[in-house]
Structure formats: C-alpha cells, structure tokens
C-alpha cells in the first residue's frame, strides 16, 4: 500500500493525531493538529512516515529513545496546547455523558519525576536486556536512563540488569522512598527456587532498601518509608503509591480544599492513606480498601502517629460490598479514589445517601464521567472539576471533582 498524505485534524484521546481518509477516521502517532503528513499501514492506526508541514507547536523531544519507546507519546508537543488537550479529555468525557461543566486548567504535577518504574528484563544467550517495550510492539528496548524519572531512580535499569543475570526473564518494579530504593520482582517460580539463596546479597551490593521477589521479602537493609502529612508509613512490598510525589501532594491539596470544614469523612479505596492521613489532621476518618497489606501499613502508621483525629482503617471489597446509605448517615463527606475501572457500585450507593459532599478522584476520565452521571442522577450537583497531569507526556490524566447536595 502506498503512503497516504493526510491532514491531521485533531488529537485522539490516546495521544494520536486524527485524520480523515476515504470516509473513515485514522490515527497517526507522533503527529499534531494542523500538520500535513505522510503515513503508511492498514487499518485505522497508521505509522508516521514523514511530517511534510509541521505545526508551530512541534518541539524537539528531549529523550533519545522517543519514537521507539512505548512510554511517552507526546514529548513533541509544546507545553500550553498539550496541557489544554489534557484538560479537554475530561471535558469531552463529561460531554459524552451529557454533563456540562467547566474544567479548571490542568495542573502540571510532574515535579521531580516519576518515583516508581516498572522495567522488563529478558535474558538471551547470556545477554541481559532491561527497559520498556517499543511502541505498538512486543520488542524490548534496552534503556540505560529515562529522563522522566526522579533522579533517585537513575540506577534502576542497572539494578534490573543485575537481577536479570540470576533470575533471567523477569519484571522489576523500583520505587524511590525516603529510606532508599524498594525493589519488587516478578520471576518464574522455578528460577526463584533455584536462585533463592543467591539473592539476599543483592541488597547490599546494589544498595537497596529492600528486595522482594514474587511477594516474598528476600532481604531488608532498612524498611522503605514514606512521609504522608504528619505520619510516616512503611511501604508494603510492591505497594501502590501515586506516580509522583508532586502528584500525590497536588491531589491531596485539592481533596482537602473540596472537603472544606467536613468533620466526619470516609476515604474509600484509601490505599496506604495519602488522603486519609492528611484528612485526619483535621477530621475524623474511616478508611477502607481491599488491599490487606496497605491497610496493615496504614493501621501501623495510625498507631505510631500523634496529632491525628480519631481514625480507623479496615479491609473491605468496595466493588462487592460498597458502603450503604445507613453506614454513611453520620458522615459529612466521602472521598473515593478507585482503580481505573471506577467506583460504579459505590457511586450508586452514594446516590441513595444523604452525604452532603462527595469528592471523586480518578485516573480515568471515562469511568469518572460514568460515576459522575450516577451521582448527578441521585441529586448531586457537580461543583468543580480539576485535571491533574502527573503522567507527563502520556495520554493519562487524573481528575478531582466535588459533588454537593
């Protein structure tokens, strides 16, 4: 098939340029609105051949792997239109549900960079490769450094390669904490059984805080810890936290502002407590999550902290067993921050409740809009929405919204 000459008319929600060809919509990664390009391929997703007429908003990518690496999609776009597009992802998702609401300008929460990274490792003929998958491919791209990471993670790829010499094919997650690097590995069970006795030495050799493999702690030099407000939390092996420290702080600030003077709050899908522990500095908190290690870590932090209002944390599957209206009758406000799939079951119970304020935090504009529609259908008014960009140069966007009745 010969190359197609296309005019890029807009940007799709996955960060790919959108064009019309032969009565159908096609997507071309690496392009910008207004550009004239040549593209090749079959189907609706094409490959960029050359930009014939570049946009004035095109800038030079700062990473030498950009274009091949599947991590970033939008380093080639000038900051202002890029951030405006991020906000439009939220606006468009709401419009698709018939909800009209002005979205506050997108907040850049990249900060010092990503504080966690997932690295793929492959060992072939004794040669270890570590990095990210190439764009739209199952080919592993060998990487030494990633410029969007927090500088404390500069050695993460070398750490992954070192572990790969023993464990072969594996996935290595590295998280930057106050006390050092926390490394969690997923490896083949038979390889782990064979190499188990050889792994503890990596903690000192690689200067790690902790090494875990398949959920088992192999060795700990110093417990990985994080500061959340006035509290210190011991991070569980492989525990989830927001991608950037600036992102967590920004989301928490917006949540606290949205809560106003609420004195009794439930934090749903609370994780290790990035919101709950900060809220507890001024209000009574009930926190719930189905992640048992996260709740154990949060309860330990509660016991060790002073200056907090009364606070409880309990394990609960909020997808199967959401809080019901009778359990929420003493609450002034509810915060929920679910996984990407959203909180449909919980939103339906909130819609039946008398809780005055609901603060929704989401990492997916589509599921957020669905949950917003449910709340509005139950009598809530959407009072404010803010987009937050902690996944810089990607198509992912965070949302914080306040609902009131």
Please summarize what this structure is.
The chain has 9 helices and 23 strands.
Q: How many structural domains are formed by the residues? A: 3
Helix segment tally: 9
Low confidence ranges: none
Known CATH architecture of the largest domain = 3-Layer(aba) Sandwich
Structural class: alpha/beta
Tell me, what is the CATH class of the largest domain?
A: Alpha Beta
In CATH, the topology of the largest domain is named Rossmann fold
Q: For the terminal residues, how far apart are their CA atoms?
A: 57 Å
Query: How big is the Rg?
Result: 23 Å
Strand content: 25-35%
Overall pLDDT confidence: 97
CATH homologous superfamily caption of the largest domain: Vaccinia Virus protein VP39
Strand order of the largest sheet: 7-22-23-21-20-17-18-19
Helix-residue proportion: 10-25%
Sheet with the most strands? Answer: 8 strands, mixed
Characterize the overall form: flat
Question: How many distinct beta strands?
Answer: 23
Structure description:
The protein has helices spanning 79-96, 156-167, 189-195, 201-205, 245-259, 276-279, 292-304, 344-351, 365-377; strands at 4-7, 10-11, 16-21, 24-29, 36-40, 47-53, 103-108, 116-124, 127-133, 140-142, 170-177, 180-187, 210-213, 216-220, 225-228, 231-234, 264-268, 284-289, 311-315, 333-336, 357-362, 381-389, 398-404. The N and C termini lie far apart (57 Å). It has three domains: 4-58, OB fold (Dihydrolipoamide Acetyltransferase, E2P); 83-111 and 241-404, Rossmann fold (3-Layer(aba) Sandwich), CATH 3.40.50.150; 116-225, OB fold (Dihydrolipoamide Acetyltransferase, E2P), CATH 2.40.50. Helices cover 23% and strands 32% of the residues. The chain has nine helices and 23 strands. S-adenosyl-L-methionine binds at residues 242, 269, 289, 337. Belongs to the class I-like SAM-binding methyltransferase superfamily. RNA M5U methyltransferase family. The active site is at residue 363. Keywords: 4Fe-4S, Iron, Iron-sulfur, Metal-binding, Methyltransferase, S-adenosyl-L-methionine, Transferase.
